[in-house]
Amino acid sequence: MSQPGFTVDVDHNQYLPEGGRDVSAIATVISEGTPAAAAGADSGGSAEIIIVDCSGSMDVPHSKIAQARAATVAAIDVVRDGAHFAVIAGTSFARPVYPPAGTMAVASPQTRAEARQAVNGLRAGGGTAIGKWLQLASQVFRTSPATLRHAILLTDGRNQHETPEELATVVSACDGFFTCDCRGVGTDWEVSELRKISSTLLGTVDIIPDPAGLAADFEAMTRNAMSKQVADVALRVWTPQQAEVRFVKQVSPTVEDLSARRVTTSAQVGDYPTGAWGPGESRDYHVGIRVQPGFVGQEMLAARISLVVDSQVLGQGLVRANWTDDEALSTRINSRVAHYTGQAELASAIQAGLEAKKQGDEETATAKLGRAVALAKESGNEDTAKLLAKVVDVIDEATGTVRLKKKVDDADQMALDTRSTKTVRVRKEHV
Amino acid sequence: MDGRSTEDVECSSCGALVGVWDRYCESCGTDLAPPVDSAGTPGSLTECPVCSADPEAPPGGISADGYCEVCGHKMPSDRDHVPVNLGLLAGLSDRGQRHARNEDAMALATSRSREKPPVAIAVVCDGVSTSPRPDEASLAAARAAVRVLLTGARMDEDPEETSREAVRAAFTALGGVAGPDGAPACTYASAVVDADSATVCWLGDSRVYWLAAAPDADQPAVPEDATTRPVGQAPQWPVSKCLTKDDSLAAELVATGLLTEEEAMASPQAHVITQWLGADFPDYHPHVRRIPLSGPGAILVCSDGLWNYRPEAGDLAALALPGGLKSPLDAVTELVKIANDMGGRDNITAVLVPFPPSTP
Predict the structure, then answer these.
(1) Sheet containing A230-238: which strands, arranged edge to edge?
(2) Percent of chain A whose pLDDT exceeds 70
(3) What residue ranges define each of the domains in chain A, with the CATH number in brackets?
(4) What integer pLDDT is reported at residue B5 of this predicted model?
């Protein structure tokens, strides 16, 4: 299979003052091609596993398990012909639902009909041990040659029937093998628990407060997974000797700090996982580098950012640094660097504010969520501003003066938490 | 260009014998006197001068895009210091001390024929640093223009008309390098020097000077100040002067009498140019002048990296002449060195054409 290319567009203020060391750049990565290129039958490269929580609580109310079945069927319906798929039921154990042998089926009208029938037989009853579910998913993926592996994990409760350590061990074993989008239905599950899984497995996390919303979301996630064309793409960062990579973050469409995910391939080169990409997909990364200072007039390559698949470089952008004694140049603030710095702070302010609120520390919660309100306003992140307004009473948006609401809907608070990392984009500055 | 008297020389490309006045090789079709520009030759460095100066540093290669694989420093570009000597004229384009790259470009050419005296052609362009890829702009414009000027000289076309056409060709070339990041732009100054005149053409603040030599070449060059001439005596030779008028805010302020030249050059807008060549500015109006000359002296085409330090024509003449009459390369080397010694804040390009152009 010929690999698609990537374009890497670097936006930053490349001018540093005399003695300046910190280079901060936004790299916009776009995979070539158009989304339409992914239409039609699958060549057998995609594998989709739907993991459905069948614990006892899924029966309360009964519509939960019924909607989960319907959502699973909706997902199966949009698995493209030729792609591999399977369904797993999760309780304190994990059980292959379809194909029952714990393998993967090749999608066709016939296998989809068989799967629908098997899914409609799902009943609720038992505990929750998410690590076991992921472990079985991993085994089932191994029966298929497909390399674009994606799972959907649905749960309605906490991981009660295994230790956090057991879960963490399984999640890190799955890291790099498949990607996973996590969904919590209702409000009895733990956002931070699912976020740990989705972050490590390079997927998303979200709340579906009303089970009726499951089907549309499952369909969208499956379609998105089917649109992927290339798996295991790494963002490779080359830096000069004696330079330090301060951070590497995905900042669009969501904030995801990848700094700790560095796999050092040589003294000056580190790879950061980005998962699978579909044609035309675009993401922004914020890279911070600290270099040895140069003298005025000198140019240095602070970083070379490449997209790499199987050690093949499929696109590259350069982060340059020029030292100048022209203050007008060196003090210029790049608007996109500033914007995404604000968006990352917005996400962490929300998470810290909600955590403080949970601990009963109203003062910190008010300060953090107030800061978040101001940042959301400043950056034009209207969706996040709306979610914040359901948790706090906004007195002055610009200064971030807020009061915690006396009564907050659990679902609203969890939606704010899960969606805190969603960012809005700004156009590249035109100089 | 070496004045050899034999009728036949070897073609530089295929080695076939060609006549000294031939324009093209009859065997392989190579242009025997092609224009030469300041693009330099790529890939000349194999070792990083920064790392190799440090005995502790491990050996590192140079990446294809010109950075050291170990320390990340930008390798000196082939355009950083480019001397070109065509005998009839010589030029030097230099990065200077403060800029990371040389965004100036020059292109030189000569037209010789058995029938008429030789013609020397010089183009200097200075990339506008607020435009994207100004270094590409200056080189593309200079290259496109010199080809038109050379063809015009060979065909004996009117040099003023040819000069206008050359600017159009440069503008078209800049359209070709424009991209999604914007329109690369540059200044433009050209001189076509024949046996009795110089035709100059410009946009922006690159300049063309006439540097007058003293009648006795052993004497210092004649200063511009006419008061040194005995009263009532007509000049025996034209005095040194700048032949171009900058398209700059500073020049406009001086012209309106709002500021003196000194005040204007000290103002922050001194280098704001009011005309340039670039795809974003189709409404440009090049200035063209044909100036009758009687020698001896020299035509100097230069970027502001030089004249910022030595704006007076008389000063430049005193520095470049009389040595430049015989060895224009030595003279431009000296001029560029002076600008570098004074700070080299900008890229520096100087081309000197001894007048009248003649094969020694």
Answers:
(1) A15-16, A312-323, A299-309, A230-238, A269-277, A263-266
(2) 97
(3) 6-33+231-332 (2.60.40.3670), 38-226 (3.40.50.410), 336-418 (1.20.120.1690)
(4) 40
Q: Which letter, b or e, does each residue of A274-312 get, where b requires 16 or more Cβ atoms within 10 Å of its Cβ? A: bbbbbbbbebbbbbbbbbeebebbbbbbbbbbbbbbeee
- Cβ pair B68:A431 closer than 8 A: no
- Contact between residue A259 and residue A245 where contact means Cβ atoms under 8 Å apart: yes
**B142, B164 Cβ separation under 8 angstroms:** no
User: Residue B262: pLDDT above 70?
Assistant: yes
Peptide bond into A253 cis (omega under 30): yes
* Fold of the domain spanning B80-355: Phosphatase 2c; domain 1 (3.60.40)
* Helix and strand totals (H; E) in chain A: 11, 20
Cβ neighbours, 10 Å, residue B19: 13
Min Cα distance A326 → chain B (Å) is 10
How far is the alpha carbon of B284 from chain A, nearest alpha carbon, in Å? Answer: 21
Is the pLDDT assigned to residue B338 strictly greater than 60?
yes
B1 has pLDDT over 50: no
Span between the terminal Cα atoms of chain A, in Å: 39
Least trusted range by pLDDT, from A344-348, B86-90, B99-103: B99-103
Least confident range from A27-41, A209-223, B85-99: namely: A27-41
* A300: helix, strand or coil: strand
Q: Alpha helices, DSSP H only, in A277-361?
A: 327-330, 335-358
pLDDT exceeds cutoff 90 at B329: yes
Q: What burial class does residue B292 get, using C-beta atoms within 10 Å of its C-beta: 0-12 exposed, 13-18 middle, 19+ buried?
A: exposed
Name, in order, each residue with C-beta under 8 angstroms of B330's C-beta and a sequence gap of 6 or more: B323, B324
CB contact under 8 A, A301 and B182: no
What was the pLDDT predicted at B348?
A: 97
- pTM here is 0.71
DSSP A41: -
Q: Taking the domains of chain B in order of start, what are their residue ranges?
A: 80-355
Query: How would residue B24 be classed by pLDDT, with cut points 50, 70 and 90?
Result: confident
CA–CA–CA angle A253, A282, A153 (5° rounding): 55
Q: How far apart are CA A287 and CA A10, in angstroms?
A: 10
Q: Identify from A245, A292, A301, A431 which residue to disrupt to test chain B contact, counting B C-beta atoms within 10 A and taking the largest count.
A: A301
- Residue A303 clears pLDDT 50, i.e. is over it: yes
**A408 in contact with chain B, both atoms CB, cutoff 8 A:** no
**pLDDT confidence of residue B301:** 98
